[in-house]
Amino acid sequence: MLLKRPYKIYGKITKVSGVYIEASNYSSGVGDEVTIDGGFRGEIIGFDKENAIIMCFDSNVNVKPGTKVLYSEEPVSTYVSEEFLGKVLDPFWKHNT
Does residue 80 contact residue 95 with C-beta atoms inside 8 Å? Predict the structure, then answer.
């Protein structure tokens, strides 16, 4: 288990293009989760020069250049246990029955 840093790393959105968002990136990698100011969550799917390319899990309506992005430096993941056997869940633990 990695120890979390005592500080948070933020970037800013530099470009919004359809379903993709570009943001300044300082240390995160492909697959890391990000939180965009306003509660939107997404995943880094690539890079363009020094910018991270992010795919939002939610709608990216009202996301604008300059909006703050929090880098988690942790991969997107879903934890499971036996209590979920036989249930249908989306990646955010919402039951789809």
Answer: no
Domain boundaries, the chain: 9-84
What integer pLDDT is reported at residue 92 of this predicted model? 63
Check the CA dihedral 44-92-72-22 and report its sign. positive
Q: What is the pTM of this model?
A: 0.76
Mean pLDDT of 80-93: 75
- Between the two ends of the chain, the Cα-to-Cα distance in Å is 34
* Residue owning tokens 């840093």: 5
CATH 2.40.160.40 given to domain 9-84? no
Mean per-residue pLDDT, 69-96: 76
Contact 71, 26 (CB under 8 A): yes
**Alpha-carbon span 47 to 31, nearest angstrom:** 11
